[in-house]
Amino acid sequence: MEDLIQIANTIVADGKGILAADESTPTCTKRFESISVESTKESRNAYRDMLFGTEGMENHISGVILFDETLRQSTVADGTLYPEYLSAKGVLPGIKVDKGAKALAGHDGEKVTEGLDGLRERLAEYSDLGSKFAKWRAVITIGEDIPSRTCIEANAHALARYAALCQEVGIVPIVEPEVLMDGDHTIDDCFVETEETLQVVFEELFKQGVLLEGIILKPNMIISALDCPEQASVEEVAEATVECLLRVVPAAVPGICFLSGGQSDLVATQHLNAMNDLGVDLPWRLSFSYGRALQAAALKAWSGDAAKVSAAQQAFLHRAKCNGAAATGKYNEEMEASS
Question: 176, 178, 193, 204: which is the annotated catalytic residue?
Fold first, then answer.
């Protein structure tokens, strides 16, 4: 249990957060198509090698979530397995373990995440391969007459079972209940559904005997939907998110690493900084676990060209640095202008 607590606190160390590089092969393929690069095992490895090899990333990145394929791959230069390579840099290797969100039987428009079958055995193998933490994502959709209580409870139960299995083998679980930005709902709708979802998640975690001091929560921010005609300001998002979390997240949780959830690079950083700059005494640290919001600029700069690795790494390091500053409330627009 002491090891779990130590790992969890290392993940949310001041000024550091998580790089979510756990895109599945289909997702990675879509992103590569946007830069006209063929998605192969070799090209995906080259891309991750570029990210992980960025000098200085360890100053702002505490952990990296890997996909199963990446966990078993090696550096291009000398063939060092990525878990070993990252650990040597002082960055914790993690692993995505869920099998994706599938249609929830009897509930149109709603999903439940699968992957519990055989998870104990997979976690034992991932631990042997060097994983220190894991991630499981549940998705909650806001729409007409949804989310249903059934959907929230089904996903919360799965998250809690996953978390208990992780801790059984000494792996810190990242608990990710994401209320999606898709749709036209308001920030108030997001608040209500996120509050209920988190409340049920922590009820299930308690029932399963999960050590809260040894988890990381990865929630959505309280934000207007993508198609909502009235978009909340950065300050409104920050205030609503902190208020919601204070209502339902126990103080025992060491840290909250937000997902970017479709936000732009810049806006995701601004929201995180605004929360940490509210001047509110919080029981947990607020940081980031971003995928696209950390990678988008680097992916575009790289575009599959080995000659552009250095430029891509600079783009990635810049976003990592900005978000690291936002995790302590010290980010400002001048950082963007000087990039």
Answer: 176
